[in-house]
Amino acid sequence: MLRSSFVTAVITACVVASAAALSGCGQFSPIYLKPLSPRTQALLAEKGMTEEQPVLIRIFKAESELEVWKARDDGRFYLFKTYPICSYSGGLGPKVEQGDRQAPEGFYLVSLNQMNPRSKYHLSFDVGFPNSYDKAYGRTGQNIMVHGDCTSAGCYAMTDAVVEEIFILVREALQAGQPAFQIQAYPFRMTAANLTAHKDDKWYDFWKNLKEGYDYFEISHMPPKVAVCEKRYLINASFVNNARPDPAGKCPAYQRLPVSRAPAMQQASTKPANKGDSAALAKPLGSVLGLSFGPSKPAYSAFTLGPATPGR
Question: One of 147, 150, 198, 229 is an active-site residue; which one?
């Protein structure tokens, strides 16, 4: 019933928007149907990307940064833009229980039914906490989001303008056929030096485990294949006879998959050629995914997201 109501609302919104456009109103409503700004569309084209190509998000708490990566035609992911995280609650370390006001760390997947266009915090999407790793440790919590309104009680909060752009980018990728996009949430940039600086922290072993996925992505520019067994993330593994791992049990027999390095020249090309544009557009202030490169779509096409339950 809820889904049906939302589809009706989307169709109605599209009719209203079309009428507004024909009357010369010049504004597009509602906000979750807005297209990307011409400036952002131009930046995509400059970087050899399209709105429909798959996305991946990396989050760094200590740096208060959220990165959006986009796939190109070679199937690898390249940095599109770095956004400032306006606010997140808690400190470094994973979310453990409901009410601890801690933003999570780990590897998560977001599909269409986790998009919330009617959020109380402008726009939002659920990061997917708790995942199978969190559940193996009995961690609790729900409605952990990336959202707007710049206020957080366990979520990653952006300004409204920033969350709008991120929401549109992931919406277009999911609508074009990407089954889900990966979120990699880290305490800090997982360099050897940063990890060594936290060697006495109680979460050091957990962070070393996260670094395996970080390193894989840095080398390959591909989302790491993530499994969970023995209460650990297992990165880039293929289980013998397609065994299904138990997150809290012993890992089945597996083989490590080969790592395909991203060409050095293409890695370097993730940096914008124009430094002035880079400062203006990307300056910070504070599983395997299916790949689909479909044809371009009209900017104002109708779509459905997921449950439109008002909330976080």
Answer: 147
Q: Which two tokens stand for residue 71?
A: 């796939």
Distance of CA 304 to the CA centre of its chain: 19
pLDDT in tens, 243-279: 999 999 999 999 999 998 988 644 444 444 343 333 3
Given the residues 155, 198, 221, 251, the one annotated as active site:
155
Q: Which amino acid is at 171?
A: R
Write the CB contacts of 49 (distance below 8 Å, at least 6 apart in sequence).
70, 71, 72, 78, 80
Residues in the chain: 312
* CATH number, domain containing residue 110: 2.40.440.10
- Within 8 A by CB and 6+ apart from 181, the residues are 54, 55, 56, 57, 109, 110, 170, 173, 174, 289
Query: Is the full-model pTM beyond 0.70?
Result: yes
Catalytic site includes residue 147:
yes
Please tell me the total count of domains within the chain.
Answer: 1
175 in any annotated domain: yes
User: Is 155 known to be catalytic?
Assistant: yes
